[in-house]
Design brief:
It is built from 9 helices and 7 strands; from the N terminus they run E-E-H-E-H-E-E-H-H-H-H-H-H-H-E-E. It is α+β, with helices and mostly antiparallel strands. A hairpin with a 5-residue loop joins strand 6 and strand 7. Helix 2 packs antiparallel against helix 4, helix 4 runs antiparallel to helix 5 and helix 4 crosses helix 9. The protein starts with a strand and ends with a strand. The relative contact order is 0.11.
């Protein structure tokens, strides 16, 4: 149970806040829920969140429309400490782009999803900003139970572009071309695999599909931050599986 702390003439009072009792497991999600609740207090002039976590920043940015008072993100420390006005930043961006950014963040790697080795967030953000189809697709992720075939094709094309093949639409074709390039001019094209750095290749189509479904599950949680007790699907129905010890393991292949 969360409590609201107030002070009066040197004494501190605590008041239970039932609306903030939450089933969200992540602290990042609960922080955002608290920020949505805080402006309901008439004396609240603004909300300041102190955190070093980029996940928190992006969740607040995507949820800024639901926070009615000025929202400040206070991050880093020492000479690098700075305050970012999320309310002002959000006003410079379309809602579709803000919705797409949080989708892109989970897809390109967060606490619960894997990343694309060697592919930084800045590059993918620039790709997103420059393509309306990408924005439409990533803003839809997490709003539906499953990924449509059309959106999956856009995502696959996005990954091809990420790996330097903007004219390709198949990650399997990109993988094939990269292997051929490694052995160009050599005899016995597959006789020696030491020239292939698998970490520099995109995932195959099967693995990409499973990864996208796991990202969809994570984003689905982030899309319902305004609900303290959301009805969510089970992770084992979203390309996770239960281990023999009762924990969760990633399902890498179908």
């Amino acid at each position: 149970m969360c409590e609201l702390l107030t002070s009066n003439q040197g004494s501190v009072n605590s008041i239970p806040v039932p609306d903030l009792y939450s089933s969200h497991e992540e602290a990042d999600s609960r922080i955002t829920l608290h920020c949505m609740y805080a402006p309901q207090k008439p004396t609240t002039e603004g909300v300041i969140v102190r955190s070093p976590d980029s996940d928190v920043f992006l969740l607040l940015l995507s949820s800024s429309d639901a926070i009615s008072k000025p929202l400040i993100f206070d991050t880093s420390s020492g000479n690098n400490r700075r305050q970012l006005n999320i309310t002002d930043l959000a006003a410079t961006m379309s809602k579709r782009l803000r919705d797409a950014i949080i989708g892109l963040h989970a897809f390109t790697g967060c606490d619960s999803t894997s990343c694309f080795a060697g592919k930084g967030k800045l590059k993918t953000l620039k790709m997103l900003e420059g393509d309306q189809d990408h924005q439409d697709t990533f803003s839809r992720i997490g709003t539906l139970e499953t990924i449509s075939g059309q959106d999956m094709q856009v995502i696959e094309t996005f990954v091809c572009q990420l790996y330097g093949k903007p004219s390709h639409t198949s990650v399997d074709k990109v993988r094939y071309d990269k292997v051929r390039q490694c052995f160009k001019g050599k005899k016995g094209i597959l006789s020696n695999s030491e020239g292939v750095d698998l970490s520099q290749m995109p995932p195959c189509q099967d693995v990409l599909m499973l990864h996208t479904q796991r990202a969809n599950f994570q984003i689905k949680i982030w899309r319902v931050l305004s609900s303290n007790l959301p009805d969510l699907p089970k992770p084992e129905n979203n390309q996770w599986r239960l281990s023999s010890s009762g924990g969760l393991e990633i399902k890498w292949f179908s």
